Amino acid sequence: MLKSLMNRIGSRWNQQRLDRCRRRALVAPLLMLLLLPAAADESLPADASLPVVATFSILGDLTETIGGARVTVRTLVGPGGDAHVYTPTPADARQLGEAQLLIVNGLGFEGWMDRLVEAAGYGGPIVVATDGVAPRRTEDGGTDPHAWQDPANGRRYIENIRDGLVAVDPDGAAGYRERAAQLLADLDGVAARMSESLAAIPVERRRVVTSHDAFGYFGDAFDIDFIAPVGTSTESEASAADVAALVRQIRREQIPAVFVENISDPRLLEQIRRETGAQLGGTLYSDALSSSDGPAATYLDMLTYNTTTLAAALATAAADIGVEPPAPATSHGDPK
Q1: What is the DSSP string of 10-44?
Q2: Which of 64, 134, 225, 298 has the fewest beta carbons closer than 10 A?
Q3: What pTM was estimated for this model as a whole?
Q4: Residue 12 in 3-state DSSP?
Q5: Within a 10 A sphere around the Cβ of 230, how many other Cβ atoms?
């Protein structure tokens, strides 16, 4: 009931935009196939790179890793930015107008994308990173766009970006495939360590509160119940009644920890923490990476950091109520 109430305050996804995004997902491979002969005849000069636009920092990181020195990636919503409420600029339109490939998340995440494509006059191929992902449905019938939070979906992101780069730049195919294969192997290692870190947390203690409903895919993958005062978009706001109901639930069910997000105002979560006595578990990275000198500067680092932060807070909470905390996970070194 509470989840339904919270999801109702989340913004509903514009169905027409979803339909247009799906059409692009179908049309883009055909466009790329049509471009193959031209790409083969007009390969990149030795001193040039492929201009690519990615909509937000997670896609930008994956594209840079797969593309290597052969691509120049312009990321529209950078580290720490909130793509839900982003407003494109004239500079974004110019950059997109010069790009040869556009990479988007899809699933309604970039509600401003159609306007930007139209303003830029962009008619090139579009990679929808979530193509092939099974969308998570919210209780109010909406679509959760945060598919990257499940490493299994992250594999799909990597494969789609790799295939998009190969299609527009076949001369670079060997390099794109090699770097993508290494990234997939690294992701598999990170996913295994995530499971190991969380496995010893008692299932009944795997309940946390976050700023907005951005961790549903993570929760489904690792059996964690994420509860949020607002829905899948940061554009919505929680009412006083919603907050009061959440406070009662936290007290009643002894939910042990609340986490702020790097893209959200922490004041609401701080209020909830004060009123419930739940511990502040730390900061989680939801819709954006950290700066290059932060703890979540890459997609793999983000998954690792979020898992470590969750496991540490939940282990402490379990110890506080007399449940034996899990043994530390064996170190496997740097995920990248």
Answers
A1: SPPP-HHHHHHHHHHHHHHHHHHHHHHHHHHHTPP
A2: 134
A3: 0.77
A4: coil
A5: 25
Distances (CA, A) of 210 to 14, 71, 158, 228, 282: 24, 36, 27, 5, 10
Question: Rounded distance, CA 120 to CA 104, Å?
Answer: 15
**Dihedral over Cα of 51, 54, 56, 57: its sign:** negative
Q: Both tokens of residue 324?
A: 């034996």
Q: What is the DSSP string of 176-197?
A: HHHHHHHHHHHHHHHHHHHHHH
Note the pLDDT tens digit of each residue in 74-98. Answer: 999 999 898 988 999 999 999 999 9
Local structure of 50: helix, strand or coil: strand
Tell me the Cα Rg of the chain. Answer: 21
- Identify residue 222 by its one-letter amino acid code: F
Type and span of the H or E element at 258: strand 257-261
Residue 324 predicted with pLDDT over 60: no
Element spanning 279, H or E: strand 279-284
